Every structure is written in structure tokens, then in C-alpha cells.
Amino acid sequence: MFSSQPTDAAAKLLLKDSSPVASSIRPLRQMRESADLRKRRDELEPLIRQVAARHGLDPALIQAIAHVESRFNTNAVSPAGAAGIMQLMPGTAKRYGTINRHDPAQNLDGGARYFKDLLSQYAGNIALALAAYNSGEGSVARHAQRVPPFRETMLYVPEVLTRYESYRQSDALIQDK
Questions:
Q1: Rounded-to-integer distance, Cα 18 and Cα 91, Å
Q2: pTM
């Protein structure tokens, strides 16, 4: 039997939003979301560059983390309780002196300092530092200093690295002009 709604716990979703109306609305929603994301990114870019310079980090890397973590949303809150642009957990925020996790300057600074410490801890290995940023330093340690085999982390690391490369190329194009 096929249905647009699950009938029991064993049901599997085969198609989602496959109606002609839904498929014509989706591109409009994505365009609006893309414009909103670009606006938030553009507003935060000077602050991201300032924070990255202060901590000796590539601004494209901080931009990539912020993009994946919150889509540059200062009010983002995860189900786990991470908040702000860099999605700082309460303990991490406290550790790095971030009093207001929704304040862009404090959040970016705390997140950048934390990531810089992770890069140092993992000898400059960006992938491991990202894995620890996403799943915690303990998770990386428990998995023999490798990216933990958690679905979220295994998707997160390459997504940030891809965004990082994209932002680096974008910066290179701007500098060439």
C-alpha cells in the first residue's frame, strides 16, 4: 500500500513533496532562503574577517563553519542547546568567556578561539579539529584520533571543507580584481 503519510512504524517514505505544486514552490523558497543567507553572511563578513585576523585564522574557514553551523543565524539554537552563529554549547561558551551566545561578536570570538585551540590540539589537522568541534574532543579521542563514525560528524566535516574551499576561491577571485 502507498500513502503520503506513514501508517505504522515500519513504513518507509519513498517520495516527499512530489506534487506539482510542491515542486514549483520549492525553487522559490530556496531562492528566498539563499537571498536571506547571503544577506546575513554579507552583514557578518567584516566581523568574521576581524575575528579571524585577531586569532590568526583563515576568514574563509570561520565563514564555512558559521555557514554550516547556523547559516549565519545569530538566533540559531540546536536541539542539543548549542546557540548562535558558531553554535556554542553552554560549557564551551563559558570556557571562552562568551556571556551572550547570541551576540555575534562574542559568539564568533568564542567559536574562533575554540577552533584555534582544536587546530593546535590536532597539529593543524583541519578535519580532526572540525570533527572535535562537531562531536567533541572526547569523541575524537575515543575513536583513536580519527573522525568519529557518527553520521552527523561524517557529513559535517566534508560539508565544512567544501564550503571552506568555496569561500577561499571566492576570496581569491575578489583579490585578483
A1: 42
A2: 0.80
* Side-chain half-sphere exposure of 149, counting CA atoms within 13 A: 2
Contact indicator for 68, 160 with CB cutoff of 8 Å: yes
User: In this predicted model, what pLDDT tens digit does every residue of 129-162 receive, in sequence order?
Assistant: 999 999 999 999 999 999 999 999 999 999 999 9
- The residue annotated as part of the active site, out of 33, 43, 45, 69, is 69
For the CA atoms of 24, 28, 34, 38, what is the dihedral angle to 10 degrees? 160
First vs last Cα of the chain: how many Å apart?
59
Dihedral sign, CA of 149, 71, 159, 134? negative
User: Identity (one letter) of the amino acid at 26?
Assistant: R
CATH 3.40.30.50 correct for 20-176: no
69 part of the active site: yes
